[in-house]
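Dear colleague,

Thank you for sharing your sequence with our group. We've completed the structure prediction you requested, and as agreed, I am returning the results in plain text so they can be pasted directly into your records. Please verify that the sequence below matches your submission; if there's any discrepancy, let me know and we will rerun it promptly.
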Amino acid sequence: MAEFWAEWGNLAYLAAAAWAFFEGETFVILAAAAGQATRLVDPWLLMLSVWIGSFLGDQLWFTLGQRYGLRALRRIPGGEKRIASALRFLERYGTLFVLSFRFVYGVRNVASAACGIAGMPRLRFALLNFIAAGLWAGSFVAAGWFAVAWLGEKATSHALAGIGVIVVLYLAYRLFQFWRRPPAPRREERPPVARTQELPPAPERKPTLNRMAV
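Please find the predicted structure tokens below.
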């Protein structure tokens, strides 16, 4: 990570923003830890970069959810189940959910789209999303930066390397699941219902009077 910053300089912050646009907790922690160890990464510029990237990424998902509904999540494995969970959290916790969904495993990728599907006003989501992105960026930059001071450079490098291996294995496993997933079955067309022949009307019955015995 330090070599990446040494080679690319300020362009590396653009890469950090692009990474956070999708989802970049591990990248942010690694970059912050490298900055503390080598002083090649400015933590404030890093935080600002990933703040903007994360904000823009979730704004895009909100717009897709608002415009296309559940169709926007069709390609995400388990998207329908995750969106159902996100909508339940949103209905129950409201603003608190928007501020904290970046820290909730399982709904992170679909939470912004859920807000759009639920009909949250665009301006309200943008404001809450901007605050939440700042909290997320500050938290993970601080976690990586102070991990080196707490664990030491060598132990932090080993820990982050282990985290990186776990993340790569997890992503490879999810990619394998995605490619092995069978295609969605096509909807079977129902055969047209044959119309029954109209039956002739039943003959009218003449009213009869009941004779009373005298």
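Summary note from our side: Residues 122-151 form the longest helix (30 residues).

Kind regards,
the structure core
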